[in-house]
Amino acid sequence: MTLNSFIKGALSAAAITMAGSFAYAQQAGGSLVFLVQPEPPTMAGYVSTSGPIGLLGPKIYDGLVDYDNDGKMVPMLAESVDVSADGKTITFNLRKGVTWHDGEAFTSEDVQFTIMDVLKKVHPRGPNSFKEVSSIDTPDDHTAVFNLDNPAPYMLRALSSYESPMVPKHHLEGQDVKTAKLANNPIGTGPFKFVEWKKGQYMRLDKNENYWREGRPYLDRIVGRFVPDASTRAAAMEKGEVLYAAYNAVSNVEAVRLNKEKDNIGLTTDGYSMINPMALIEFNTKEGPFTDAAVRRAISTAIDRQYMIDTIFFGYGKPATSALSSNFSATGLHAEMPNYPANGDVAAANKILDDAGYSKDANGVRMKATFDLIPYGEDWKRGGQYIQQVLGEIGIKVDLRYEDVPTWLKRIYHNYDFEMNLNYFYQLSDPVLGVHRHYGTNMIRKGTHFVNSSRYSNAELDALLSAGMTTPDATKRAEIYLDIQKILANDMPVVNLFELEFLVVYNTKLKGAYGSAMGAYASFGDAYLD
Amino acid sequence: MNRSSKILRYVSRRLIQGIPIILAIVVLNFFLLNLAEGDAVDVLAGEAGSATPEYMEEMRKKFGLDKPLAVQLAVYLKNVIQLDLGYSFRHDMQVTELIIDRFWPTLILMVSTILLAVGFGILLGLFAAINLNTWKDSVVSVFALITYATPLFWVGLMMIILFSIKNDWFPTSGMENSAMFYEGFERVKDIAHHLVLPTITLSLFYLALYTRMMRASMLEQYGQDYVITARAKGVSERRITFVHVLRNALLPVVTMAGVQVGALIGGSVIVESVFAWPGLGMLAFESLFARDLNLLLGIFLLSSALVVAVNLVVDVVYCFLDPRIEVN
Description:
The structure holds 2 protein chains of 2 kinds.
Chain A: H1 3-20, E1 31-35, H2 51-60, E2 65-67, E3 73-75, E4 78-83, E5 89-94, H3 108-122, H4 126-129, E6 133-140, E7 143-148, E8 192-198, E9 202-207, E10 221-225, H5 230-239, E11 244-245, H6 252-261, E12 265-268, E13 277-283, H7 293-302, H8 305-312, E14 317-319, H9 346-355, E15 367-373, H10 378-393, E16 396-401, H11 405-414, E17 420-426, H12 431-434, H13 436-439, H14 459-470, H15 474-491, E18 494-500, E19 504-507, E20 510-511, E21 528-529
Parallel strand pairs in A: 1-10, 15-16, 15-17
Antiparallel strand pairs in A: 2-3, 4-5, 5-7, 6-7, 8-9, 9-10, 11-19, 12-19, 13-17, 13-18, 14-18, 20-21
Helix pairs in contact in A: 7-9, 14-15
Chain B: H1 3-34, H2 40-47, H3 53-63, H4 69-81, E1 87-88, E2 93-94, H5 95-130, H6 135-149, H7 152-166, H8 185-222, H9 225-233, H10 237-267, H11 269-274, H12 280-289, H13 293-321
Antiparallel strand pairs in B: 1-2
Helix pairs in contact in B: 1-13, 5-6, 5-8, 5-10, 5-13, 6-8, 7-8, 8-10, 10-13, 12-13
């Protein structure tokens, strides 16, 4: 089966599923109020991938496709996708009769403009996702032909409304995209129209009566509420004032309690597979105590990953077993590697350090270091405290440092003024999009956040990474990533700890909001109130 | 010269004196805020996941953050003098617009809190002073002590649990019902309903202060010669308390209320946070972490202007409360 027919098959299968869902009796109407935490800075999802924008943006903007829980493409603005045999020409057949919220028609010109002039230029990840796209032809209003320099299989996994929203050319053309008024007055083709943004309170979206999907959306209104205090958010959820909360808006401890005490509150870990968050430690491989890979391996060996998950994250998480998340098993890329023991092995770690010639002094200390912690809340502080204890057992004495976000970003990604850093990265839907940035020599970019801060550089790995980018064949790709994982399990410039499982907390009154792999970053066109 | 023109001259002189004070505050704040590591571009780029150095450089240039500090300050001062508070790059909005939008909720919360706290504080203080050294006095004193010593966020959360979750009397948070979006009079009712818990929480703290102060002030006045004179004349205790002592005892309480208006803008951050009340305190708090300096400076400017103005009003109110006090 060629890639082309595979995609076509996936799209038509999804279309059938969608048609089938009409058979159920969903109720139309009602308002969905849900938690958005924190308040987004703007609504320019085409300029910033800031998390809270993702919670609201995809309700207003559509992508070319969506992805179901198995990662298969679901048609959105593109009815079908044709990939040429050499993988260098990709044709999107666009849906007819789609209009923007202001009434203008959506055409292939918008697609061309969005990819070439917006995402490829100003989106944080767009230059990477659409790197190979050299031009887009628009033979007619409903056909967009992407011309690629090299095959880019990962690109087809970056077309959701969160990652690559289609934006109206007539509102951005001839302006500075980054300062255009569209940022605060979004106009999309999605199921809900932007009505009002009361800063510090809520954003209100009303039903798009002219939505291209017959009978959707069911809801009359979606309101994202901004509640700064974590306990109050939990109270609002408990009382039923808000019906949905994702990305830890309600903390794990409260979520588990509410789920136990209240019959009408449910929990799920679905909806994060395209995001793929991974907790990890970045090491400075150029200066300081961690330039030797043996020390980094010892640290990875000592940490009890399962213990961290159970005690700090209430059991929500999965021990990492390689540089890639196990969610990449679906595409055959993930392989389990040594040096990632789930339960930690302090004796083995001590032995690695002894063998490498690091002896303990009279106080049992081999080396000292400062451990920076990601300033995103209490869980990470506790994680740091646990690791501090374990490292003490293998003779590495660390002091913890917890700063505010700008100071921390500057330290890690501008000044490289750190030794080890607790962090988490989104591995996203393909290693090219989320993992390469952590290890490639070309990703050592001073001043760019969330890239290769370890300054790890390995020519052999670089060659494998670029092969992984341009190889469309799934079997060959799996072999390439096997080699990549082997190198990284040995060198460990970054020690992966565990795959974070964020929770979605929902009121059982809300149905139909869980079918997309994008989870909370989906359109909610199918959501309804019971 | 008659009294009203005297007051007018006094007010205008004080207003002119206020301008250099406010400018000095702006300059001081500017340098203080610039001491913090990182800038708005770092935060924006960090939230975005990843951004190229060229992109960040371009943003810095656009925000004017690439210029030397002195130039940035000069540009800012020039704009402030023209009453332009600048642009918030984070919110992509004019600072003035953002601040005005958040000023009304702050004002509503502030005014209702002061009215409640001062009103009940005066009553309780009066009650305690009349029943000096009885169990009633002790109850009031203990109540004041407890409310003063309890952390605000805890009181707020307990209020939510008691009156919102256990008893479905009030909404947990927010300023209006965001599922219904009432209009007209219904909206006023809705906002008032949302206002109850945050106002009570914030007032409890200040209430204690006014109660203690009122009680002490009453006791002090009772010891004055004019009270003895009144008693000697045969004026009833009731009349002495409510007509003579009460009026005089109010003076320090009013002073205190004036001073606290300024503190209330910043002091309500906790209450705003717990009840998701969209006021200026939260806005300032968030912009600090986002290094949104233009916005932060704008908020500081407004609160310093407010403090200067309220102090002036209090001084003027004095001469009406006590005709012996004169402005000059």
